[in-house]
Amino acid sequence: MPAQETSRPIYDCGRFYRESAEYPEQLKFRKFGPQWFKKLYDDEEELLVMERELNVDIAELRNQDGQGPLTTLDFPRILSKRDGRLYGKWMRYENKLRAHAQDQCLVNSLYQLPVHGSYAGATLNDNSELFKDGIFCPTNESGGAAAYQDPASPEFIAVVDVGSYDFLMDLAVKNIGWIDQKILERLRRWFRMSAGSGQIRLSTLRTFFDIIACMFVPVLLTATMFALARISRLMVRIAVVGVFGLIFTASAKLLSGLSRYSIFSLTAAYFAVASVFVSTAVDGAGKTT
């Protein structure tokens, strides 16, 4: 009797798959954590049963020779070749043991995969072709749309690590749709460019903010030196250094997302250089007078 074909609707997801080759960071997959953990424990139970059966068979083989019982840890495997049935069971036990270790390594690798970032989640959720009547179309999963559209679900992983965001990067990611519609779309019209795909590469955003940071730092340091050169009173200079130092510290956090330790080191270096500049200017003013 021929197998009955499973009835399944066909969804038009081809464009999504083609775009995913260019934007793989938007993909998210279930990691099936509970299922994997249950499998590991089921395998351990079967391994223990197989080991106990092997120990019984080894003890029977040893009794035939008038010797005391041994376990799989004490009895050399090569001696089990005397009994083809025992040797076959031993090899199946070791194959199961090897497969269990491989599964453990696989689960460990699975949980090292990155989580699905907010940028990728926003891009995925905006794709109306994937979600129809609560169904996630690629897997035909009824009610799956809510799970796949939940950015806080811990049961999903990404295949591409997008890294961590600093404050401004995270703000841009959360408003990616508004940026594309209100800013980039106007630029496209002004420069008569073709309409975009509705997606902005994460690398493009990173490059943009890297350029902003590279431009901001020398401007801030130059402004600090210019202000100190124009001010003659020592106390006012110290106050100016404090204000610009606060701006420098805040911008370092907003533009780079560095750790507290790194920001503390950068701030200390900034004030060290500024204090040298202030003291040099004071010495120069004293010699002039």
Automatic annotation (TrEMBL):
<feature type="transmembrane region" description="Helical">
    <location>
        <begin position="236"/>
        <end position="255"/>
    </location>
</feature>
<keyword id="KW-0812">Transmembrane</keyword>
<feature type="transmembrane region" description="Helical">
    <location>
        <begin position="208"/>
        <end position="229"/>
    </location>
</feature>
<protein>
    <recommendedName>
        <fullName>DUF6594 domain-containing protein</fullName>
    </recommendedName>
</protein>
<keyword id="KW-0472">Membrane</keyword>
<feature type="transmembrane region" description="Helical">
    <location>
        <begin position="261"/>
        <end position="282"/>
    </location>
</feature>
<feature type="domain" description="DUF6594">
    <location>
        <begin position="17"/>
        <end position="273"/>
    </location>
</feature>
<dbReference type="InterPro" id="IPR046529">
    <property type="entry name" value="DUF6594"/>
</dbReference>
<dbReference type="Pfam" id="PF20237">
    <property type="entry name" value="DUF6594"/>
</dbReference>
<keyword id="KW-1133">Transmembrane helix</keyword>
